[in-house]
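SEQUENCE-TO-STRUCTURE ENTRY
===========================

Backbone structure tokens: a row of integers, each naming the local backbone shape at its residue.

Task: work out the structure tokens from the sequence, keeping to the layout shown below.
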Amino acid sequence: MDKLSNWREKAKERSKEIGRLKKRMQEIIQSRKNWKEKYTLVKAENDRLHKALKTKIKEENKWKEKEKKAIEKPKHHSYSTQIIMLCIWLRQEGNCSLRSSASVLKIVALMLDIELSFPSSSSIQNWEKKLGYSRLQEEGKKGTDWVLIIDESISIGSQKLLLILGVEISKYKMGSALTFKEVSVLYMGVRKSWKGQAISEELEKIKARNFSITYSVSDGGTNIGNALIISGITHVKDCTHYIGNLLKKQYKGNELFGEFSKKCGELRRQVYLSKNAIIIPPKQRTKGRFLNLQPLSKWAYKMLLLLEKEENILSPEQREKLSWLKEYEPLVLDIYMQCKTMNEIFKILKNKGLSFQSVEECKTILKKSNITDFFRIGIEEYMATNLKLAVNDKALICCSDIIESYFGKYKNQLARTSSQVITDSCLCIANFSQNFDEKEIKKAMEDVKIVDLKKWKHEQFPSNIVQEKRKLLKSVG
């Protein structure tokens, strides 16, 4: 019995020990599980911190590179490439004056608490001249075809600026009108007169710079036309000038139109500063009047519609001042419909170019339009003549409006000066395309010297009206 009793006691104790050990095992397993979870969390946090550290180091290195670039200066220059580029951007994209560009830099530095040295207006002007000069020396790439757009602009005195733009055909997609970014300045020069032979010589120099010229677009200027013939370059006439000249041929010698135009001018002077200024006609241009007939015809057409309405939209006094328009209603309707049709034609030709498809679209518009036979036939002749010049059924660029935009932007900058005379500042025209980067800026600043700018200025401007005027006034003390 004692042995049996001892065995039972031992069994109970062993059972308790086994229970205790199982319980302890479960505690250890749970503890191990908890530590594993903690380890996983700590490891994940360490990995995240390690990754964040690597990213931070990478960003710091990136900023160091940017800072290094920001303080990188072209050889023999006191300002960094980025500051030079920013100033040229302010001039070309922001349309700031030279002094305003320097002022903007000061404001930016003040607001962002940046330590900067500020360039003078003369430094900024030298920078944009250098970039412009550098671009005029660029070589063309072999195997690329170009279209030229040529025109000359007249300034005060006897100076005439010849501008030759280039469009790389492979980079321009039809569907929208040309913009500054799609055009490059291949040549600009100033002379007292530009004859066909002189223009042809400059065209040959462009060819010598590896520019393969497919055709050229320009207005009907005789000198430019002769130059293209001498150089053997196909001439596509500008649709804007050609169709505008059709209106000119129709109405220049027309007595009825002369009377209408005169009365519009008289009405403008009568109501300009009066309470009836709301009915004032648009200002008529002295030069290119027939290229700008649309605003005048649209005004007259709208006024005729108002006169027909019985509502009291117009006062009795205003009706009286506009009553004379009814005498010219047939003329106004003719001009209005022709201008409307002209705009529809331009919308196709200026965006899609001249092709068999665009010509068919234009013919459909002409058939539906209520315009004179002279105007319809003139447009059809223009399209038929120039369409023969198309190669491989490719659409032709037939609009030179972009060159007028170049002249307009330069004249806008020139208007801020007192003299408004063409000077060597015209080199900035080559920068209007705005496709420049830090690499090009740095190269231009290092390659072009001030002596190169002086030499170019002496070649283009041996004397100008400002110098002659100063000399004349100096002679009397």
